[in-house]
Amino acid sequence: MRNTNFSGQFALPLYMAKWLIIAGIVAVLAGSASAFFLVSLDAATAWRESHRWMIWLLPLAGFAVGLIYDLLGKTVDAGNNLIIDEIHDPHNVVPLRMVPLVLGGTLVSHLFGASVGREGTAVQMGGALADQLTHVFRMEHADRRILLMAGISAGFASVFGTPLAGAVFGLEVLLIGRMCYDALFPCVVAAIGAHLVCLAWGAQHTHYAIGEIVPLGLWNALAVAIAGVVFGLVGKMFATATHKLGALAKRFISYAPLRPALGGIVIATAVWAFDAYHYIGLGIPDIVRSFQQPMQPWDFLGKFGFTVMSLGTGFKGGEVTPLFYIGATLGNALAPLLHLPFAMLAGIGFVAVFAGAANTPIATTLMAMELFGPEIGPLAAIGCITAYFFSGHTGIYRAQRIGHSKFN
User: Which H or E element spans position 402?
Assistant: First the structure.
């Protein structure tokens, strides 16, 4: 027993020193990539907003991105799912080409007006950059799995400015109903480090103010739970619709570059016909507005439709920021019916729809506390956990597996 304890005392410092160095390198790589991405994304968004005619070039942009991926990116086209699959069943190091391809594809999508997010890009860059260390440190499968999880955490944390949520997201997103605690220390180090590196480069994150937070009482808890049911069902509908449209597009349009080209025609025409410019891109101004004033009750549906069309036809980016938009505007619309402050319920919807769509209730609860303040934690937990249960086992990440059923 003494020998075991003695060896363990030396093993722990060595383990921590090893992962402190490796996760620190991941943090520098992912945080720097996210900073460059965020600054570039702001520039692309500003250019598009001052040149609205760019939307008519979206079909050509979609064809160009689709063609590049068809020629050079077939091995990385699975995106986030490729990273998650490699964690579950390690086979090959993620090609470094994923980084410039997803970065360029996402910037082009935003520049010309697709409704996509940014989480997918950051996670893919973080995971791919981290995986390049596999050969450098000659890692076995077990350590490579942890390395990839650290890359996911670093990318997520740095792109949203939420280090705690990012750390837990890398642990929670792989398996529904289970957390992978063996990677806890590396993910925390990578997430916090990447966040600090991103800030050091001068990247900016949006700050949200939601004002009044009602006390945790019986009615308020019940009202948030009722809203959570709606948030979970909408998250499930989003994931299902995106997957089904993607499958239909592949079934009826065999030539991959034509899918985003045709999707771009539909999006550009709809934006022009309905004057729906506020539904494209990230939609940050409308998210901020949902915390400040009542929104139109159909805004969440508009963003839902444009995002499903964009992602389902092959534009690159992510799902999360559009889900923030959908959740915030939906919460804003539900607030008067439930007699809750619209800004507070918009904040809970912001994270809860994502919690349901991604099956990550713990990470999203932490995100609410990091973005809106710790006082919202109990009510955000109620909304996120309720949404998680009512979204079923459908999710935006196909490679996500069921570790433990939600209903057993």
Answer: strand 401-402
